[in-house]
Amino acid sequence: MRVNSNCIICAVFLCIYSCSFHVCVCARACVCVYVLILFWMLCVLQVSGMHIYTYGEMEAVNGTDARLKCTFQSSSPINVNSVVISWSFRPLVPGREESVFHFQQRAYPPLDGIFRKRVVWAGDIMGQDASIIIRQVKFTYNGTYICQVKNPPDVHGTVGEIKLRVVTTASFSDLIRLVLAVAGGITGVVVLLIIFVSCRRCRKRRQRQQQQQLEAGNEAAPRKERKDPTAW
Predict the structure, then answer these.
(1) CA-CA distances (angstroms) from residue 89 to 33, 50, 110, 117, 177?
(2) Which among 2, 59, 62, 229 has the fewest CB atoms less than 10 Å away?
(3) pLDDT, averaged across the chain
(4) What is the pLDDT of residues 159-218, one digit of tens each?
(5) How far is it, in rounded angstroms, from Cα 155 to Cα 151?
(6) Which residues have a Cβ under 8 Å from the Cβ of 48 and sit 6 or more positions away?
(7) Residue 211, φ and ψ in degrees, nearest 5
(8) pLDDT of 69-105, one tens digit each?
């Protein structure tokens, strides 16, 4: 929570000014306390901190790419030049946190450590997206990933955490989703082919009917008798 310094100065000034009236000491104290409470409500409670949203938990198959999605909502206008994004990693075994990624006007991937040449920026500052992609995850990447975003003066608030679990094969639910996605794609292609073939058949049938109607009209039309040029 942050407090505007101008609000504090105004509150103190009004408190001193209100206490200068020729009233009893108790009345002065009540007025001063009332002014301080009023300015605290106006200047502090109206400020909401940074809110960060993540999946919480996710799993990725060993050797595949994992997208760590992190979005944020700030009470201050987004400024691309001042937003600071930091990703850190806390392993399952006790140990120190390791820096994974840093963004400030541009991306700063790690130059050393286990995430060297493995992290790619996948976010959008104006879209309030601070996501990253970890290439070819390994079992040593099991742990908690912490996403922190600062948008000065909005620098206080919660942090986002993602517990990543690297597995040998996809879970049953992931396989079901994959099968449904493939089946849905195949079904869509088959439906499009059926519609295409049906449209072609209808067009050919219509052309054939028009041709038959034209031929029938020509046969029904009366023929003109040819005049013999030798006849007088």
Answers:
(1) 46, 20, 12, 15, 29
(2) 229
(3) 79
(4) 999 999 999 986 555 667 667 888 888 988 999 889 988 888 888 888 888 887 777 766
(5) 6
(6) 75
(7) -65, -40
(8) 999 999 899 999 999 999 999 998 887 889 999 999 9
Task: Return the closest-CA partner of residue 49 out of 152, 170, 147, 127.
Answer: 152
Q: pTM here?
A: 0.56
Provide the token pair at 58: 């996710």
| Separation of alpha carbons 189 and 192, rounded Å | 5
Bond from prior residue into 153 cis (ω within 30 degrees of 0): yes
